[in-house]
User: Fold these one by one.
Assistant:
Number 1:
Amino acid sequence: MNKRVLRPLCDRIGRESVDRVTARFYDRLRADAQLAPFFAHIEDFPAHERLIADFWWIALGGKLSDPAPVDMLGLHRPMKLRQSDLDRWLALFGETVDAELEPELAAQWKTMAQGIGARLRQAAIG
């Protein structure tokens, strides 16, 4: 009998790719006329990117020795996001992972992002 070995998405994507996708995604966000204003108040953007890369690493199945707690829903609730903002966020994220990863891995990560987007819609938009 063959033993089935599961490889979490984090292992198939790799930490370097998670960091690269996060950085490229935030480059796009910060250049986007619709979404850039939501990030203008962030003073230490490298720290923010590291926090989000760590969030994704954990969401993709990775482990960290000392993860920072991130309340994505609580942090986004006061931002007054509209449906169109979340749609744009997901579109830019999809474009980024499509450009940076092989199609199968990009599709799986985008599915996760869609789920997070749905929860943000419920929490932030209501």
Number 2:
Amino acid sequence: MPTISMFYGILVSMYTLDTQKHHLPHIHVRYNEYKIVLAIPNGEILEGQLPNRQMKLLQAWIELHQDELMADWFLASSGQTPFKIDPLR
């Protein structure tokens, strides 16, 4: 699972060929012991949880990088490695 971005202890990943379970474009996020799966480009929670502060940071990052996330999803869903996306600064 390639990590496509990291910021403030938040790791954002996207699996290649990961279309079976959630059936929607999505990202996997880890922060300490928390794991969450979010739909893209809207940030809807599909599974898991994250502390409120980190969730707000992540939602801001998703908002800024919607187009890049969707482009990465199309790459990953066809078996290609997604590109890195700039972290939140």
Number 3:
Amino acid sequence: MKTTRFDIEKFNGITNFNLWQVLIMTILVQIGLKKVVTEKKPENLDQLEWEELDEKILSTIQLCLANRVL
């Protein structure tokens, strides 16, 4: 399995939030999770699976926040 690393500046409250937001959405697209923040839960997806995807997104976003913002 190939791993791709994305290196963006952590949002610290001072950097440009709009740019940071675009970069986060781009990362979510690349890792296949954007649908979780932009769509409702698909009928055919188990609630537990949906919650796991939601946790993955949350952790991805949290890892891109500076400690003082988190």
Number 4:
Amino acid sequence: MASKTNPFTFLQQVRSETSKVTWPSRRETMISTLMVLVMVSFAAAFFFGADQLMGWLMSLVLNVGA
């Protein structure tokens, strides 16, 4: 079981660990955000097209006997 520390010591440790983090620059954040938006758009278009195609094929199969 982990040893308990007081809140003040905990906050000091958190601050120490946070200072070790390498934060992305504004440019890196903007590029990453843009890439995510582009990939989400491609995925949405692909799945929309696949859904429409499968719906059309299913309507052809199910309307054969009608």
